[in-house]
């Protein structure tokens, strides 16, 4: 598993260029910066300006958190803020998130941070979890912060594994999401620790590795829950906020679950009214 342990700007920009699949020439053409200058930046023979860092970062779609890191190692002050979701300046965003969660009823929806920790959820999410498992079963999936971690909930042997009929089918896709982000986030110990913990769960690494060798792609991930006579089928979408200039906002994700068949739609509507 590749990580970057470098601290110089040159090493960081080279890391991100390769992660995004750019050659020095293609990055030169996309940015309007000469290939020679890019080479000098990577080797340390030239020092970047603040504007140059932000220009290349935009082309390479580098996360705001990592852009701040690049600015810092190059000797500049970070430009992107990281606010608490409860901060007054983010009140309109918080209201929009609450509106989205409410509108998704009677189907589950939750807001997560960059490590897949649940920050907020709607009532349908809690109804679904309560209908599938006992609360104490999810204790191993709770982070020290007290937040449920979605990946742990789905993959931990004491989580939802026993009630997901197609668990072996969804494991590779879920692990690949975490793996992909552990690479694109650069040097990030927390994301690496999460990935390693997930891979330590029974059968998870074997299932993931078997699919990697097949170069598989899943156009739509379906999750089928089965508990006694209850059968529910969902697919989900993940939404992020467009063009944010705050680290917290960029790293938020909203996952909404939709019924995969009419039976699921009807059952979730019945649960919402207490039937």
Fold topology:
Layout: H1 9-19, H2 24-31, H3 35-43, H4 50-60, H5 64-73, H6 91-104, E1 109-112, E2 118-121, H7 123-132, H8 150-155, H9 167-184, H10 189-200, H11 204-212, E3 222-227, E4 230-239, H12 247-251, E5 253-259, H13 262-272
Antiparallel strand pairs: 1-2, 1-5, 3-4, 4-5
Helix pairs in contact: 1-3, 9-10, 9-11
Basic shape: elongated
User: Unreliable segments (pLDDT under 50, ≥5 consecutive)?
Assistant: 1-5
CATH fold-type name of the largest domain: Beta-Lactamase
CATH architecture of the largest domain: 2-Layer Sandwich
Question: Going across the major beta sheet, what is the strand order?
Answer: 2-1-5-4-3
Biggest pleated sheet: 5 strands, antiparallel
End-to-end Cα distance, whole Å, is: 48 Å
Output the helix-strand order.
HHHHHHEEHHHHHEEHEH
Q: Which structural category do the helix and sheet elements fall into?
A: alpha+beta
Given this structure, which CATH class of the largest domain is correct?
Alpha Beta
Strand content: 5-15%
Short description:
α1 packs across α3 (35-43), α9 runs antiparallel to α10 and α9 packs across α11. The chain is elongated. It contains 13 helices and five strands.
């Amino acid at each position: 598993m590749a990580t970057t342990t470098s601290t110089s700007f040159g090493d960081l920009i080279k890391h991100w260029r390769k992660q995004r699949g750019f050659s020095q020439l293609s990055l030169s053409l996309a940015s309007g910066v000469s290939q020679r200058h890019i080479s000098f930046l990577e080797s340390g023979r030239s020092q970047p300006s603040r504007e140059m860092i932000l220009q290349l970062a935009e082309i390479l779609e580098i996360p705001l958190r990592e852009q701040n890191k690049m600015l810092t190692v190059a000797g500049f002050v970070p430009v992107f803020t990281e606010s608490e979701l409860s901060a007054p300046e983010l009140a309109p965003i918080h209201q929009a998130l609450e509106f989205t969660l409410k509108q998704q009823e009677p189907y589950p929806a939750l807001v997560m941070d960059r490590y897949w920790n649940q920050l907020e959820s709607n009532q349908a999410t809690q109804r679904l979890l309560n209908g599938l498992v006992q609360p104490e079963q999810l204790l191993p999936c709770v982070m020290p912060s007290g937040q449920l971690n979605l990946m742990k909930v789905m993959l931990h042997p004491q989580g939802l594994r026993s009630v997901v009929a197609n668990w072996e089918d969804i494991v590779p896709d879920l692990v690949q999401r975490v793996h992909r982000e552990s690479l694109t986030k650069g040097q990030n110990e927390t994301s690496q620790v999460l990935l390693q913990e997930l891979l330590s769960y029974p059968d998870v690494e074997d299932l993931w590795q078997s699919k990697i060798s097949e170069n598989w792609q899943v156009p739509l991930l379906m999750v089928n829950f089965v508990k006694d006579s209850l059968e529910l089928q969902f697919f989900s979408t993940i939404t992020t906020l467009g063009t944010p200039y705050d680290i917290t906002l960029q790293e938020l994700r909203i996952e909404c679950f939709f019924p995969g068949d009419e039976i699921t739609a009807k059952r979730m509507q019945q649960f919402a009214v207490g039937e």
